[in-house]
Design brief:
The complex is a heterodimer of chains A (261) and B (307).
Chain A (H helix, E strand, L loop, with lengths): L8 H18 L1 H4 L1 H17 L1 H4 L1 E2 L2 E2 H31 L3 H6 L4 H30 L8 H25 L5 H15 L12 H7 L3 H14 L6 H25 L6
Antiparallel strand pairs in A: 1-2
Chain B lengths: L3 E11 L5 E11 L3 E5 L6 H8 L7 E6 L2 E2 L4 H6 L1 E4 L11 H11 L4 H14 L15 H13 L5 E5 L7 H16 L3 E5 L3 H7 L2 E6 L2 E7 H6 L3 E8 L13 E6 L2 E7 L4 H10 L4 E6 L3 H14 L1
Parallel strand pairs in B: 3-8, 3-9, 6-7, 7-8
Antiparallel strand pairs in B: 1-2, 1-4, 4-5, 9-10, 11-13, 11-14, 12-13
Helix pairs in contact in B: 3-4, 3-5
Classes of the chains: A mainly alpha (261), B alpha/beta (307).
């Protein structure tokens, strides 16, 4: 009897992950097309029209300088948005009961949602990179290993943040507050469009407190080979926060906060 | 395999804000049983089911499913359990077939193995023709069937249904009864909560009544119904009457000129009543129970508890 009752964890994880991927692929017009359209507009306006007037930034053409920042912006938004909206939806529709009644361990539930978010984040990143090649075809990635590492770690980190946001959310307003009023300003001021070297000392010091600056610059180091911050410090901080956020997410699931009565 | 499908011991639940839902209930349901858990709204039925299915966190107490303590090995316990919740709890935007296949995957069943199981289950519940429909387009009755298909896809040994026939039409209710009787006959232990007391009387072998977070009755359906002292009958007459007749030992009331209502103690014979009516020239065309017997008992039990 016990042999028959052994749960195949691999199948449960794949089932949840593929369900998450199916979900965002089913609504691709809402999930995959908007970043391509928005980033095309950024490249047209800031890259092709205004970029040549700005000249170089840290020794690179402005459009080339922007590419890593815009990819990272899309990855952050995509992975965060996927998990926050999907997990809140299953809470809202009560289909979370399917997961809670099933024998799936909490870590599989968390990992399934995170992998869904990471997949969307990376897919969106690839789409934006392809779009960027129309505006700067000669772009070459400086360090492919670092680029992929940062891409993966960043999408995991922001998928986890989306998960925590969804656990505490009680309404659809709650899942848009943090992306609109916290993430977006921090990303815009986190070195996507400029190097902090052009800022006065005071604002440069203030910018150093912005966590997005480290993510964007580490990715830029991977793609272009330049950065305003220490790469080892940035990677350590990303890994540390992944550890902290995953532990906190598992604690929330274990205690049933926001999901069990 | 354990003698008991479910054992609950001293289960307590206090919600945030101080509402006490369960005051320490204990319950044993034998393997193969068809058990009715009844109670008025807010009595603690859904809290009990929620705790068994781990949707609700218990305050204290113990739950064992086929001897497996849910605190010690919840995954194995859950493999033996299927729950049909009161509210619709699937993604409304997915296809019927995907919902059931995904549910099988959540229980670790490979897609290749799940496929034939899903087809059998959907055919059995009359959902096969709607397998490619989005769940949100289904009618209420079909949504209920889908809930049952989901709960049964991993072939649980214990199935708990929280008001499965609420809001479904009579025909579908009868179909569901037949289906539940069949899977119970095939060995699945079933626990049912319902507001349709007729449903419990028709289906269940044993019954528990919960009120204000306490089990006030836990017995066999037969024993419970045996306790009924008085039974009401409605007699449809062949010819109209102006006044109710007087017959010693029987309390008769005329609802309308062609309908006579009586309450008969269990030590009195209904045949004797017919004879007496016959003697005074009153002919009875047909007879039916005044109301559901279990309903009377239920109301009586709850009322006595409050007094």
């Amino acid at each position: 009897m016990n042999k028959d009752l052994k749960l195949n964890i691999g199948i449960t994880l794949w089932t949840l992950t593929s369900k998450e991927i199916r979900r965002f692929m089913r609504i691709w017009v809402q999930t995959l097309v908007p970043p391509a359209v928005t980033m095309t507009l950024y490249f047209v306006i800031f890259g092709s029209l205004i970029g040549p007037r700005i000249g170089e930034m840290d020794g690179f053409d402005y459009v080339q300088f922007m590419i890593p920042g815009l990819i990272m912006m899309s990855v952050i938004t995509g992975s965060y948005a996927n998990v926050v909206s999907s997990f809140y939806s299953v809470k809202f529709q009560k289909s979370i009961e399917e997961l809670l009644i099933s024998p799936m361990p909490n870590w599989v539930i968390l990992l399934g949602f995170i992998l869904g978010g990471v997949t969307r984040g990376i897919l969106v990143g690839i789409i934006v990179f392809i779009v960027s090649l129309f505006f700067y075809p000669e772009f070459q990635i400086a360090n492919i290993g670092l680029t992929i590492t940062v891409l993966l770690l960043t999408s995991v980190l922001f998928a986890l943040m989306g998960f925590i946001n969804a656990v505490f959310a009680d309404s659809f307003d709650d899942i848009s507050v943090i992306p609109t009023f916290v993430l977006t300003p921090l990303i815009y001021l986190g070195g996507v469009f400029y190097s902090i070297n052009i800022l006065p000392d005071f604002w440069r010091s203030i910018s150093m407190a912005n966590p997005m600056l480290y993510v964007v610059n580490t990715f830029r180091e991977g793609m272009l080979g330049i950065s305003d911050v220490s790469i080892s410090f940035s990677l350590s901080m990303i890994v540390l926060f992944i550890f902290l956020f995953s532990s906190f997410s598992l604690y929330l699931l274990h205690k049933g906060i926001g999901i069990r009565e | 395999m354990s003698e008991f499908a479910l054992q609950i011991d001293n289960l307590k639940k206090t919600y945030k804000g101080g509402t006490i839902a369960l005051k320490g209930i204990s319950l044993k349901v034998k393997q193969g049983d068809f058990y009715a858990l009844l109670g008025p709204n807010g009595a603690g039925k859904s809290s009990t089911i929620g705790i068994i299915g781990t949707l609700v966190t218990k305050t204290s107490g113990q739950v064992k499913i086929f001897d497996i303590d849910t605190d010690k090995d919840v995954a194995t316990a859950k493999l033996l359990l299927g729950v049909v919740s009161q509210e619709i709890n699937f993604s409304q935007f997915e296809k019927v077939i995907d919902i059931v296949t995904t549910q099988a995957g959540f229980y670790g069943i490979k897609k290749s193995l799940a496929k034939p199981k899903v087809e059998t289950m959907l055919r059995r519940l009359g959902l096969w023709d709607k397998r490619n429909d989005q769940a949100r387009t289904l009618s209420g009755g079909y949504k209920r069937r889908l809930m049952i298909a989901k709960a049964l896809i991993h072939e649980p040994k214990l199935l708990i249904l929280d008001e499965p026939t609420a809001g479904v039409d009579i025909e579908l209710r009868r179909e569901m009864w037949d289906f539940l009787k069949e899977i119970n006959a095939n060995g699945t232990t079933i626990i049912l909560t319902t507001h349709y007391l007729e449903e419990a009387e028709q289906l269940c072998k044993n019954i528990g009544i919960i009120d204000h977070g306490e089990i006030v009755v836990d017995t066999s359906m037969k024993d419970l119904l045996r306790k009924l002292d008085v039974q009401g009958f409605v007699l449809d007459l062949e010819e109209p009457l102006d006044n109710e007749p007087k017959i010693d030992g029987y309390n008769l009331r005329l609802d309308d000129p062609l309908t006579l209502v009586t309450s008969v103690n269990k030590d009195k014979s209904i045949n004797k009543l017919f004879n007496e009516l016959n003697k005074i020239g009153i002919k009875v065309k047909s007879m039916r129970n005044e109301s559901n017997r279990l309903e009377e008992l239920f109301i009586e039990t709850i009322k006595n508890k409050h007094e």
